[in-house]
Amino acid sequence: xxxxxxxxxxxxxxxxxxxxxxxxxxxxxxxxxxxxxxxxxxxxxxxxxxxxxxxxxxxxxxxxxxxxxxxxxxxxxxxxxxxxxxxxxxxxxxxxxxxxxxxxxxxxxxxxxxxxxxxxxxxxxxxxxxxxxxxxxxxxxxxxxxxxxxxxxxxxxxxxxxxxxxxxxxxxxxxxxxxxxxxxxxxxxxxxxxxxxxxxxxxxxxxxxxxxxxxxxxxxxxxxxxxxxxxxxxxxxxxxxxxxxxxxxxxxx
Length: 253
What we know:
Layout: E1 2-9, E2 18-19, E3 21-25, E4 30-35, H1 39-43, E5 54-56, H2 62-65, H3 68-77, E6 87-92, H4 96-100, E7 108-113, E8 119-121, E9 124-130, E10 138-144, E11 149-153, H5 163-167, E12 172-179, E13 190-191, H6 192-201, E14 206-210, H7 218-228, E15 234-236, E16 243-245
Parallel strand pairs: 1-2, 4-5, 5-6, 6-7, 11-12, 12-13, 12-14, 14-15
Antiparallel strand pairs: 1-3, 1-16, 3-4, 8-9, 9-10, 10-11
Protein name: Beta-lactamase domain-containing protein
Domain Metallo-beta-lactamase: 18-211
Keywords: Zinc
């Protein structure tokens, strides 16, 4: 399984860098995980959007779905579509307005998921856990059943104890790390210190910090996360276009 970073900021794009979006690829599947602002332009550098097999959305905040509408227009209007049938867009249906908007003429179709579902897409097995965020949001576990590789994406969430068991043993953990370790007050995202604790509790070896802030020195955010794991976890700072192969994650650092 390979992960291509299309965007990694939280909230809004900045300095030419998109918000949340990741291309997940196996030998059988091209899956877009979240589709934030600026993601479609970056996706086009790596894959013809017509070659997507599905889109999977963690929740409906704009920094995770802003480019869904233009992706729908692409599937409706761009020439030379290589295959028939609508593009499946998976989202939870606890917000009916946003869920129903995933249906677009005959070009995209909304498909629901919830915490009790197991979705099988080609060689991928996908499961879900509701997180703690101001709107309904899900962490997502993606398993490549052919190669027995596991990716867990926390989606947006503050830290809570039960999250570690869902993330346990992942080959790659992608964490909402929106705050430096000095963040005080109400938090609906995790700090670098909390990401470090989650990594240790979940017994993972590789962490990609994501949903990053537009301010400060992101190298410091990475170092803070490493320190919180006692330097026992491979912490990866994302870059646009970065490709992570789960069979060789360590090669990135």
